[in-house]
């Protein structure tokens, strides 16, 4: 089976992507796919690991090609594209469709954080309940759950009970989290102005890392692929 067929079926299962996004097949080698390596990003390290593991394809959350390319030059993206071609690796990515999907990136993040009774705000954000605790205690819990150290925080002096999450880069969703009724907003990374906004709105905020808030979905995505294609071997890569 070719990567185009695999990507089409998985995309249909996950649902629509944002219009500005570039989901789906990034590279097609032309070979049938018998083994897939799943990871967050197509890095040089993951290309080498996939090849050494005997994979025919890499499936990621983040697109290898996001903006249109006019040439393959010496930049990072071009270098990684060329490495995939040289190693005969097809590549497919499921970005915002996996962010939005039920059981996708943000639902997985909520599970890691013990957030219950979740509902969606915006197409991709989630909001739900945790046991009441101090913001300091929640930061400690989040750091342990996500294996990270929150590197930007705003302590608004409120207890944590209602938490909104947007995985990855959620700098533009502070007001949306506040309007949805959250007392605390967790994302991967945000701008300085977003942190100021949180302080002005009086909402706790913590940034736990783009990778750390999204990498937990890798085994979930691998499981989705295995469910649909039981005859294809699927492995996960951690970096």
List the helices and strands and how they pair.
Layout: H1 3-14, E1 24-27, E2 35-39, H2 44-52, E3 57-60, H3 76-86, E4 90-93, H4 96-100, H5 105-113, E5 116-121, E6 125-133, H6 135-146, E7 152-154, E8 160-169, H7 174-179, E9 184-189, H8 192-201, E10 204-207, H9 210-214, H10 218-228, E11 233-236
Parallel strand pairs: 2-3, 2-11, 3-4, 8-9, 9-10
Antiparallel strand pairs: 1-4, 5-6, 6-8, 7-10
Main sheet characteristics: 6 strands, mixed
Give the class from helix and strand content and strand pairing.
Answer: alpha/beta
Give the termini separation.
Answer: 27 Å
Strand order of the largest sheet: 5-6-8-9-10-7
| Total count of strands | 11
Shape estimate: elongated
Our Rg estimate from Cα atoms comes to 19 Å
In the CATH scheme, the class of the largest domain would be Alpha Beta
Q: Residue share in helices?
A: 25-40%
What are the low-pLDDT stretches, counting only 5+ consecutive residues below 50? none
User: Could you give the order of the helices and strands?
Assistant: HEEHEHEHHEEHEEHEHEHHE
Quaternary organisation: single chain
CATH topology of the largest domain: Udp-n-acetylmuramoylalanyl-d-glutamate--2,6- Diaminopimelate Ligase, Chain: A, domain 1
Q: What is the name of the CATH superfamily of the largest domain? A: NIF3 (NGG1p interacting factor 3)-like
Q: Give the overall average pLDDT.
A: 96
Strand fraction: 15-25%
| Integer count of domains | 2
CATH architectural grouping of the largest domain: 3-Layer(aba) Sandwich
